[in-house]
Amino acid sequence: MDAHEVTDLLEARRRRGESYLEFLRVASMSCGLYELPRGAEDKQTPHAEDEVYYVVRGRARIRVRSEDREVRPGSVVFVPAHVEHRFHDILESLAVLVFFAPPEGTNPR
């Protein structure tokens, strides 16, 4: 079994000092924790894999293509591969679980 506590993932990501911490990678998917502080700019570009975001903490907005909506703890957002998207208007530090299928970086762009 590969089990994790979100509090442990938050601490591991903080120690690493990067905004994204991958914590699981198997043949069919990968998972990570993405954090952005209040007021930050999300500079990510479209991924070649489908992804799902689950908001653990914080409040912000997300734009997927031309659609825009608020996200808060409990929000779940699906983003198809190759689609422009980003978090913005981050009102409270954002912590998001990210699920990629197939694993991030394994699909050709």
Helix content: 10-25%
Number of domains: 1
Please mark out the parts with pLDDT under 50 across 5 or more consecutive residues, or reply none. Answer: none
How does the major sheet shape up?
6 strands, antiparallel
Name the descriptors:
6 strands, Jelly Rolls, mainly beta, 50% strand, 109 residues
Brief overview:
This protein is mainly beta and 109 residues long.
Question: How do the strands and helices of this protein lay out in sequence?
Answer:
Layout: H1 6-16, E1 20-25, E2 30-36, E3 50-64, E4 67-71, E5 76-79, E6 85-101
Antiparallel strand pairs: 1-2, 2-6, 3-4, 3-5, 3-6
Describe the 3D structure:
This protein has 109 residues and is mainly beta. The mean pLDDT is 96. The termini are far apart. Strands 1, 2, 3, 4, 5 and 6 form a six-stranded antiparallel beta sheet that branches. A hairpin with a 4-residue loop joins strand 1 (20-25) and strand 2 (30-36). The protein is globular, with a radius of gyration of 13 Å. The protein has one helix at residues 6-16, and strands at residues 20-25, 30-36, 50-64, 67-71, 76-79, 85-101. It is built from one helix and six strands; from the N terminus they run H-E-E-E-E-E-E. The relative contact order is 0.28. It is 10% helix and 50% strand. The protein has one domain: Jelly Rolls (Sandwich), CATH 2.60.120.
